[in-house]
Design a protein that fits this description.
The protein has 190 residues and is an alpha+beta fold. The chain has helices spanning 2-7, 10-35, 49-52, 63-80, 87-114, 123-126, and strands spanning 131-136, 146-152, 155-163, 173-179, 184-189.
Length: 190
């Protein structure tokens, strides 16, 4: 091993040092991510919004992206050193590879982030027209409130409810007319 290292020229020693260091940090980051220890611990570099933001709320200049760049750059340089005679062309190809690596990782994380769901329901947009049943009797003419269970977006939810019509007993089928607020619906007999 020592003979191999001693036979390398200075440029290859630097490239191997970058590649090995970036690979080690990448492996540690990956293990920490799978163990749940992944966090943004202040290693992000906050620059002007035009430079630091990639348009989706993801920061472009982060420690993780720096390591991804060095990983792509280093491995491209080490693997292509024997194939590309010009050091300038080798560095250009390696830099482009590092940038592509960062872009690919950011696209993957953006795609994964788009698959998240919050589980929150905007009752003002989703409730009108939904059907359900009275859970607790609803007094007539908005003289008090009861409770209904309705199906919104394939999920059964319970809300306070009032009605403009006659009293609605427990178990009566209802349809939502509108939402008064985030917790109270106006319903009518179905």
């Amino acid at each position: 091993m020592a003979d191999w290292w001693n036979n390398l020229d200075t440029m290859m020693r630097i490239l191997w040092a970058i590649t090995a260091s970036a690979s080690l940090v990448f492996i540690i980051q990956t293990v920490m991510t799978f163990l749940g220890a992944d966090s943004d611990s202040g290693l992000d570099f906050d620059a002007d919004a035009g430079v630091a933001e990639a348009g989706s709320g993801m920061s472009l200049l982060t420690f993780r992206n720096f390591i991804n760049f060095l990983l792509g750059f280093g491995w491209a340089a080490v693997l292509l050193r024997g194939s590309i005679a010009s050091n300038g062309v080798l560095m250009l190809v390696s830099i482009i590879t590092g940038v592509i690596m960062v872009a690919l990782v950011m696209l993957i994380f953006k795609w994964l982030g788009s698959m998240q769901q919050t589980g929150n329901i905007d009752v003002f947009k989703s409730a009108a027209g939904c059907r359900g049943k009275v859970y607790l009797t609803i007094p007539a003419a908005r003289s008090g409130s009861g409770k209904v269970q309705i199906n919104i977006n394939n999920s059964v939810r319970e809300y306070d409810a009032v009605t403009d019509g006659a009293e609605l007993p427990t178990g009566a089928p209802v349809r939502v007319k509108q939402a008064l607020d985030a917790a109270t619906l106006v319903v009518e007999a179905e």
